[in-house]
Structures are given as C-alpha cells and as structure tokens.
Amino acid sequence: MIPAKRGTETFSLNSALRPDGVPAAGPGSRGSDSWWAEVSAVFRKDLRSELRTRSAVGTILMFALTALVLIAFTVPTTGLGLTTKILPDGALQDAVRLGKPVLFTENTETRDALLSSLYWVVLYFSAMTGLPRVFVKEEEMGTAALLRLTTRPSAVFTGKLLFNVVMLLVLTLLIVPLFALFYDPQVRDWPLFLGHVIVGAGAIAGAATMLGALVSRTNNRGYLMVVLGFGPLLPILILGINGTAAAISGDNGNNLAGLVSYWVMMTLVSGLLFDRVWVE
Amino acid sequence: MNRSRERSPALWKWLVGPWMIGVTLLAYLWAQPLNNGFQSPEAARIIFWHVPMAMLGLVWFWIGAVHGVRYLYGKRRGDPGLDAKIHFANEVGLICTILATLSGMVFAAVQWGTPWNWDPKQVSISVLILLYLAYFGVRMSVEQEALRARLSAVYSIFGAVATPVLFYVIPNLPQIAKLHPPASTITSGLDPKWRLIYWASTLGFLWTTLWLYELRLRTAAVEEALEVVEAPATEVRLQAMRRPAA
To answer: How far is B71 from chain A (nearest CA, A)?
Structure first.
C-alpha cells in the first residue's frame, strides 16, 4: 500500500501558503495538520488561484456560452411539431367536420426532450474542457510534485473534488438562466428541473475529477478527457436528460435516486483508485 | 508461460473445433425455427451467436478489470505480465463486442427494418465500444511503461464499474422504449432445446476466446523476447555499417 502517513512527515501546506510573510515550516518539522485541514487547504488554494486567474471558470463559461448561442440560432426550437400540436383523434374529426382549426399551440414532448438534451450536451462538453484544469495546471506549472510531497493523496482528491463540485454548481447556476433565456423551455416543474440539474452537475464533477487526474499525466491532456469521460459519464447524462425532460413536461417520476446513487458509487471508486493515479 | 508452451499440442484447443461444428449443426438442424414474434423464424437463431458474444464481451472486460485490481493492489503489484493480461483481455472483449454489434445489425435489418435504430442496447454497446477504445487511447497517450500500465489499469476498473449501469439499469428505465427482449428470455423463457444449444455455444465461444487470449499473451512474450535478442544485434549491424571494413 501507498504510505498514508506521508502528510504528517513533511511540512504543513497551510503554513507554506501563508501569504503574510510568515516563513513556512521547514521540511524537517512535523506538521500537525489533520486530514480535514489538508482538504481545506487544497480547496482554499485552488479557490484562491481560480479567483486570481479564472482560467477554469472562464474556459467553461466561454465554451458553454458559445455552444448555447450557436445552437440557439441554428437548431429550430419553435414551429410545427415543437410548439404546435395537432388535436387528438376524436376531436380532430369533429374539428375537421365543423371547419375549426386543427392545430393548437402547446409545447410537444419532442421539444422538451430536445431542449433537455441540448442542455446536457452543452454542460458535458463545457465540463470536460474545464474540470481537468485542477490537475492539468498542477502538472503544467510544475507544482504537482510539491503537492504530492506535502499532502496526503486522499486529501488532495477530496479537496479537488470539492472544488470541482462547487465550481460546476456555480457554473450550472450561471448556465441555467442563459438556457432559460435563449430557449424558453417553459419548465412546468422547476424544483424537479433544478434538482436534476444540480445533482447531475455534482455527479459529473465527481466522476470527472479522477479522470482529470488521469488525463493530466498523459501526453494528450487537451482532448483525451472528452473521449475518456464519455463512457463513465453517459449514465449521468441519460438519467439527467430523461429527468429534466420529464420536469419540463411536468410528468411524474424522476431519476434523482439513480443520479445520487451513481454519484456516490463513482465518487467512492474514484477515491479508492485516486492514489494509484496520483502518487509517483 | 513456459509451461504452456511445452504442453503443445494442447488437446483443449483441438477439441474446440468439433465442439463448435457440433453446436452449429445442432443450431441449424435440431433447433426448430421460432414463430413467435420473429419476422423470419430462421432469424431467431441469432440467439446462439449474438447473445454469447455480447455476454462474453462483458465477461472479458470484467476479467480485465479483475487483473487491473490485481495489478494495482494484489501480491504481484506492478508486474508487467498482469498489465499484458489487462490489455489483451480488453482486446478480446472489444473483439467480442464489435462482433456482437455487427451480428446484431444484420439481425436488426431483418427484424426491425433497419440496421441501426438506437435501441437502448445498441446505445449501451456502442458506448461500451467507445469506452474501451478510450482505454486504448490512454495506452497510446503515455510513453513511460509503468505509468501507462497504472493509468490504463485504473481506467479499465473505472470502465468496468460503469458497465452494469449501462447494460442493466439504463435499458430498463421506464421512460426508454425498447425493442430487445429482457435478459430473462434467455434464462427462463426459452425452449429447453434452445437453451441447451445457447449455453453450449456460449461455452464454445468462451473456449475460443480463451485460446485467442492465450495466443495473444504468447505472441506478446515472443515479441518481447525478440526485441531483447534483436536490439543488440541491430546495434552491432549498424555499427558495422557506419565503419566500413578497411
């Protein structure tokens, strides 16, 4: 097994990062950081550097915005079969006999499914470009080795996982209003829609964190993530698309339980496998 | 590895030929065509070839994942031999899933009028193929051998964990329309004669793929040995070319 005591033998990441000029404890001193203190240090370090550069948030947001705008003026979301329905059989014959209009305005299930797929596809590709950044930037800036020396792998994983989950949730809350503005989905059950969107974003971030660590160690950091993420994340996308489509239509039934259990399962597997990817 | 090479010609490999010929003859002569719900009653025989392939694809991916766990955590942790086992198990699994997809497409063209209609099982299997192509993508993206083995072992475990959800949960979601029969058709709903041939065929294909797997492990071992032998020899030859005889 990989030695779990690594963190306790080296200096504290907390004090190493202290911005007020207090010298960091030397490598010889025994840090007394608890596991949670390490997790929180990793999380706060990533948050601080993200607030300075906004590289991951900026990437994801620009990607999502570009995709949403491109789709909004290329994919038709109104018209016959999307916002117009034909009367059901019995009423149709009556209407034809009486010379009344046979079409009426109402969003079809096709439109609900289309919009909910578009949302998740945009979210998937945006997330896949942005989420691996937390690890890729450590490798690119040469700070990964230091992080390996100072912090236990499980604390690195948990801190980065928390950061990714928080980041994707924030982005979701930015993308959903844009989505609502551009496509006018006319969601009938907002709590259920938001529930799926939030739980799905958490699940995507959960599975993508470990894959990001894996991708950061390969030669194809740029594009491998989209390919690697597809299989493990597809169940989340399918459950999410089905769930949000039902929420837009106002149908009963939801996939929240499925999403949460897949999230938990993937996070546990990721946590178990992480040190094999991370440690040299 | 050495022991299996000395044991040739292995009887179990010779027996797979007659076994599969027997299964094929039984499938076409003994089993009566099924009339319930099939466009062409003859097409029902797809069960003997297509279903074992799909099943074995999953079985081999899981064998790969088990070797992955052994590679990362077992007693032989870090053994390149285990890495080769993961690699080739996934390769055999990929061959099985591609064959299952192709045979399924032939059947779908007869039964449902089009080779591809995004039935949930077709979605699942195409995702599975992409997932394991991504596994080979990981292998191609890392040069350092130990790291490549470690990362690809992790990914093959990660992928295997997703397979039950892809294959059993998603196709059974109430919202998803499906054309494939449920899996219980094979285990309980089938005519006993058909079930017997089905399992005989599954056994035969397991046998064949085991042979394929073993062959792949052996050729890899030979290739590696050749590299060790040839590399210095090539170097000597190159030096001789650089320095023409006086």
So the answer is: 10
Judged by CB atoms closer than 8 Å, whether chains meet at B151 and A218 is answered as yes
**Size of the A and B interface in Cβ pairs below 8 Å:** 88
Give the CA distances from residue A124 to residues A120, A205, A219, B119, in Å, rounded to whole numbers and listed in that order: 6, 10, 22, 22
Domain borders along chain A are 6-15+31-75+108-278
B20 near A CB under 8 A: no
Instruction: Give the span between the Cα atoms of B151 and B141, in whole angstroms.
Output: 10
CA distance B51 to B181: 11
**H or E element at residue A105:** strand A103-105
Per-residue pLDDT in tens (0 to 9) along chain B, 246 residues = 455 555 556 777 788 888 888 888 888 888 776 666 676 777 778 888 888 998 899 999 999 999 999 999 988 888 888 999 999 999 999 999 999 999 988 888 888 888 888 788 888 888 889 999 999 999 999 988 889 999 999 999 988 988 888 877 777 766 665 566 655 555 556 677 778 888 888 888 898 899 899 999 999 888 888 877 776 666 666 676 666 554
Residues 6+ apart with CB under 8 A from A254: A192, A195, A196, A243, A246, A247
Q: Structurally, how many domains does chain B consist of? A: 1
Residues with Cβ within 8 Å of B192's Cβ and at least 6 positions away in sequence, in order, are none
C-beta atoms of A230 and B151 within 8 A: no
Sort out which chain A residues have CB atoms less than 8 A from B173's CB and list them. 238-239, 242, 255
B130 with A210: Cβ contact below 8 A: no
Amino acid at B5: R
Contacts of B169 in chain A (CB under 8 A): 235, 258
